[in-house]
Structure formats: C-alpha cells, structure tokens
Design goal:
single chain, 104 residues, mainly beta, Jelly Rolls, 5-stranded antiparallel beta sheet, 57% strand, Cupin domain-containing protein, Cupin_2, RmlC-like_jellyroll, RmlC_Cupin_sf
C-alpha cells in the first residue's frame, strides 16, 4: 500500500494488506524490524516462537517484535485479511523465510 522513509536514519515503514485464504498458512518467517498487525476481516491464528497461538478477529491487533519468528493461519471458511505495518531497517529483505522452523 505504501513505503516511506522515516526521520530515523536507515529506518522505513511499509504498509501492506495481507490476504490469507481459508485453510492456508503463511509459513514461519521473521522481519528485520517490528510488525504491527490489524486484522481487517475474518479470523487469523498467529503463533510467535516460544508462545502459545492466539486467535484474532476483525478489529484485533498484534505486535510482533523485531526478529521474532512467527506464522499465521486462517482456520476459518472465509478470507482472512490483515493490515501489516512494518517498521524495518531499510535495504534489508522485508520477509526472511525460515524453512527449518516448519518441523515445529
């Protein structure tokens, strides 16, 4: 949706709408900065490394600290969507997949 440099050197913000179809899982990954999640529609289940899964619905929010591995799953029968706002280091990949986590 948008990408903008911040007044802090080397930091940018990125906003994106993420849609997850019913039954689909966004696999384990992390970001080079914080992610602020606002659920727009549906039901989404999030698991952060070392924590129990949480289920969020439209209007709920979640904060994912920098570098923390996490995944998202849509357990519902309708589309799940979030507005993801990333506050990240500029020039680094926005998403770092973690294939080795899939066994967990």
């Amino acid at each position: 949706m948008q990408r903008q440099d911040l007044s802090f050197k080397g930091i940018e913000t990125v906003q994106a709408r993420i849609d997850i179809a019913p039954g689909v899982t966004a696999p384990w990954h992390h970001h080079p900065g914080e992610e602020v999640i606002y659920v727009l529609e549906g039901t989404l289940e999030y698991e952060l490394e070392g924590k129990s899964a949480v289920t969020l619905r439209s209007g709920d929010v979640l904060f994912v600290p920098s570098g923390v591995a996490h995944k998202a799953h849509n357990p519902g029968t309708t589309n799940g969507a979030e507005l993801a706002t990333y506050i990240v280091e500029k020039g680094k990949p926005l998403v770092v997949p973690l294939a080795h986590m899939e066994k967990h």
